[in-house]
Structure formats: structure tokens, C-alpha cells
Amino acid sequence: MLYTVSDLLNSYAESLRLIAGGGGLARSISEVCILDYELMPGLKNKYQRANFSANDLVLSTFLYAQDNPYLITDAIKYLVAKGASGLVIKNVLHLPIPEQAIRYANVRNFPVFLVTSDDLFFDTVIYAVDRRIQELSSSSFAQSTIDALLRDAGDPDAVRRHALMLNPSFKSAFVTLYAELDEPLTLDEFQQLEHEYHKQGLAACERMLASYDGGIIGVVSIDPEHVLDLDAVERQFREAAIFERCGIIPAGTGISARHFALEELAQSVTEAMQAARFAHHRGGATIRFDHLGVFRALLPFVGSDPLRQFAARILDPLSEHDSEHGSALEETLRSFVACGRSVAETAQALGQHANTIRYRLEKISALTGLDYRRADDSDQLALACRIALMDELFPDA
Predict the structure, then answer these.
(1) CB atoms closer than 10 angstroms to residue 280
(2) CB atoms within 10 A of CB 96
(3) Closest by alpha carbon to 129, among 13, 34, 8?
(4) Which end of the chain is more exposed for a tag (fewer CB within 10 A), N or C?
(5) Closest listed residue to residue 35, CA positions, set 77, 98, 2
(6) Between helices 354-368 and 329-338, what is the axis angle to 10°?
(7) Does the structural domain 301-393 have CATH classification 1.10.10.2840?
(8) Predicted confidence pLDDT, tens digits, the chain (397 residues)
């Protein structure tokens, strides 16, 4: 995971003011350094090396420009040429920032900030940002933070705090995607996937891509005044084909419902992972949580004794009959429910004659006391099958 200029701005929103280069907030930061006198005329050629490189965030008071503020423009041009991520100016001498410097930074999408608080100290920023970069680069950071997010799901303040640790640039309208994998990615494979994520234009400062629980998790957020179009999100990721470009085939991908408060991120992550499990079960499709039907109402209670007892009362007689007689009554009932309770589709799915399916359904009715042709009885049979499926998909619930 990358630390971006947008993350910096959100972390120090009360102490920084963006004055130029707003188009470059998605630039990543790999290191923080101070511009002192290195670019001062007459001195800059005496340095063995300039201590600035690509993706550096540069901090400066520009004391050396007190007699010539236009040196600020020269410094910005130099830093842009070096590929620096941005510039933070603590204008202790209240120097006028040349208009030429502002125009140049805007054209180059090079973020320039003014420090607006006397309480912001460069040493503190360097320490905090460097530590944050190290956290994000750790393969365990996302895992441990999302674990904490889910563990504290009942505490809205804690969820929001964990969410902003994952990405300070998250907006309050968002959706979570989760790709379940048959085998966890190696670090090299994830870095390749992350490279494609950026290359295909999916990356943005208000988004996140991370490895979690053996799969890949993504969060897409936008300002709440905009419409979060799930069709567009799904289509964008499908057309970018970042997994396929890396030779990776997800076992199943889930997309959460829309959410409109960061306090709901734990719920969103859970929804995406649950939908991905169903997608895996159905052969590797992409499934939205919104499309899970009655499962949405059942999932909060998966593993509960009342549900298990309800399913067992209906399905246990079938499984006992199957064990004793080598029949396939439970399989037939489950397929019947999965096929929308259509005899013809069930026969096709199981490769059996329709009359064989009807015979088995009659036997199921006799053993359970529930007539598959009556709406209320059929609903109970279907509910038992769905409870059993949830128990299989979420055995640790």
C-alpha cells in the first residue's frame, strides 16, 4: 500500500493549505527530506550530490530566498524535474510566493502546501510520515488493521479510526470488493497486481488495494454528493482485467452494498467477503451482496442454534435415508431449490429424467411432511437448504 500526498493533506488538514498542484494529490511518497541551502546560487554546485529524488516529499523554510523569492520558482522547477512528490513551505519570513511558481506547479500537477500552524514542526512530520510509509509497506499492516476493524465492528468510532488508518483519504460514500483466491499471493505477485492496478487507471488517492486473509480487498470511495454506480465500478474492474493480466484467476469475487459512512466499513468488508464466498460456491462469478436475496436476512444469524435446529429437523431424515439406502434425496432437494424449484431444470442439472426427480420429491415430502407443491411447505424446504449451505460456506461462524 502506498502513502500519497492526499494522505498527507488529510492527516494534517488543520495545518496545511494547498496553494498549487491540486491535480497531483495521488502522487506517492517514499521519503521525506528537507530543502535547506542546496539550491542556493553559489553553493549548490559545491554539494557532492543533491539529496532529492523521485517520490520525495520536500520540506523547506526557504530562508535562503529571503533576498530573492524567485529562487522558490527555481526550486519548484528543480524538484519537478527530479520527480519529487510535493513541496511543503513553512513561510517563516512571510515571503511572497511568485505567481510564476504557482502557475508552473499547477501546470505540472506538483502539489505545493503552505504551513498554516506554528505547531507543525518538520521533525515531527518527518518522523510521522516515515513511520506511516513503513507501516503501509509492511505486508502485515493491512491484515492487522482490517482484523482490528472487524473485531471492533460494534464500535463506530473505532471502525472509523481503523478506516482512516488504512487510508486517510477515504471519502464517506464507498463500496468494498473482495477477490477470494485459491492460494495466497506472494509479495512479488501482489506487487505485480498493484502495478497493473495503477497502470490500468484504477488507482486513486481515495481508493485502496491490499492483500487480506489470503485474498485481495479493494475499497472504492467517492464524495457523497456523487452517485456511486455499482454497475460502473464492476464494469471498470472487469474491463481492466488486472487479475488476468497477472495470470491470476479469482475463485470468486464479492461486491458489498453501497455505504455512506466510514463507520460502516467493517460491515462493508464483511458483505464483500460473504458475497465472494457465494461466488466461489457458484463457480467463480462476481456476486453483489445486494443480489443474495434471502441470504442477506439469514447471514447475520449463520451458525445460530435456532437456524441449525430448523434445518436439521427437515434435512436429517433425508440424509439418514440416503445413508441407509444409497439414495440422493438431499442432493435432489438442494438442486431443486438452486434451480428455482423447477423440476425440468433440476432434471437437466442432475442428468436425470423429470419423472425421477418427481419421484424423489414425493419421497422427500413423505419423509419431511412438507409437500414441495404447496407454497408454504416449499418455502420451508428451501429455507432448510439455504441454512445448510450457509453452514457449509461459513463453518467458523
Answers:
(1) 22
(2) 10
(3) 8
(4) C
(5) 77
(6) 110
(7) yes
(8) 788 999 999 899 999 999 999 999 989 999 999 987 766 665 554 443 456 889 999 999 998 888 888 899 999 999 999 999 999 999 998 999 999 999 999 999 999 999 999 888 898 899 888 888 888 777 689 999 999 999 999 999 999 999 999 998 999 999 999 999 999 888 889 889 988 998 999 988 899 999 999 999 999 999 988 889 999 999 999 999 999 999 999 999 999 999 999 999 999 999 999 999 999 999 888 999 999 999 999 999 999 999 999 999 999 999 999 999 999 999 999 999 999 999 999 999 999 999 999 999 999 999 999 999 999 999 999 999 999 999 999 998 7
Give the residue among 278, 330, 284 at the shortest CA–CA distance from 299.
278
Matching fold, domains 5-135 and 138-292: no
Which amino acid does the sequence have at 26? A
Torsion sign, CA atoms 392, 297, 231, 146: negative
**Which amino acid type is present at position 322?**
D
Please state whether 391 falls in left (phi above 0), alpha (psi between -120 and 50) or beta.
alpha
**Which CATH topology does 138-292 take?**
Alpha-Beta Plaits (3.30.70)
Q: Are 22 and 111 in contact (CB under 8 A)?
A: yes
Q: Quick one: fold of 5-135?
A: 3.40.1390
